[in-house]
Amino acid sequence: MSGSRVWSWIDPLTKSVRQWAQLRSLRSELGTFTRDEVAQMARDVGLTDNGLESILRGHPGPGTLLPRRLARLRVDPVELRGARPELYRILQTECASCGSSRRCRHDLANQAPGPAWRDYCLNADQLQALATEARRRRTEGKRQSYTYL
Description:
- By secondary structure, this protein is an all-alpha fold.
- It has eight helices and no strands.
- The protein has a domain at about 60-140.
- Helix 3 (about 50-55) packs across helix 6.
């Protein structure tokens, strides 16, 4: 096996192990707080208790699937997060509470055609509005601003 082929799977593996260790550390740290304190922390960052628990279980939606879905719709997730952090947080919260992360991951990995994702995505309306606005702004030659939602 060539060196570049080895690194092609070692880098993602290393990243996954690092993320797992960080998540485990966070779970351990949160274990020192009461249930009410954890619930308050979740509310402070705009999450429900269930949303926080989904993230702590390693739900791939908010950190992985949401940016990929946005990119697929030709919406820059980094720019959106910087321009509209409150909107991005709402999208992340909905994504964290979704029960269709496996289907979403599969659709994104297989580049499933068509609007099927709208049937299961809790953020479908907001994402479609963002995509429409991004398309309109590209047509007009303007920089995306995301000030409309």
